[in-house]
Amino acid sequence: MNKILRILFVVFLILFCFDGYSGNDGSKERASRKKSIPLMPDYLKLQYAGNIGLGSVGIGYFWWKDKMQTEIFYGKVPSWAGGNTIRTVALKNMANIYDFHPASNIVIKEQIGFSTNLAFTKKTYMDLPDYYPDNYYSPNAIHIMPFLSQECTIYFKRYCFVKKIGFYSECNAMDTYLYQSLKSKEVNFMDVFSLALGLVIAF
Predict the structure, then answer these.
(1) How many domains, in total, are found in the chain?
(2) Are 183 and 161 in contact (CB under 8 A)?
(3) Separation between Cα atoms, residue 120 and residue 88, nearest integer Å
(4) What distance in Å separates the CA atoms of residue 142 and residue 88, rounded to the nearest whole number?
(5) Could you tell me the CATH number of the domain that includes residue 11?
(6) Of 49, 45, 21, 30, whose CA–CA distance to 195 is shortest?
């Protein structure tokens, strides 16, 4: 499994390089190249923490006039960090709610969205095991996480190998924790939030 993911990661990097590197002037050529490969992502993300894994990698797509974004992540918590190895696949959707341009090549964005996470480990399940009474526990393999994100992106000149690079922070909350904080006074509402830090790269 890990070997396959490494291969896919290298393939994505190669595709990014061929899609973005060009000594020619003009965005029409880049747009035509992207249309020839419909699944070509717009950017790559590397993320630390944030309820997807200790570390995670994702690809993202812009749509609806670049005001909306959809991302697919794969993350992992190794056994030495979480007791059990946890692998997570996440589908994130977000909308830009505010843009700020402190310079011509710098954009600061405020974004809001939600993530649907599917976790794979020995202690997660979609259906309750037979040895539990009906409705004793809720399925714990899928979670919904609302989040608020702030991103600062720097755009480089068109002849640069890297089109843009950005740094972001994300504050999210898992649905289970939110529910427990509203249901029980023993769970502090502020404790349900988690922070993620990440890097955005587009070629």
Answers:
(1) 1
(2) no
(3) 6
(4) 10
(5) 2.40.160
(6) 49
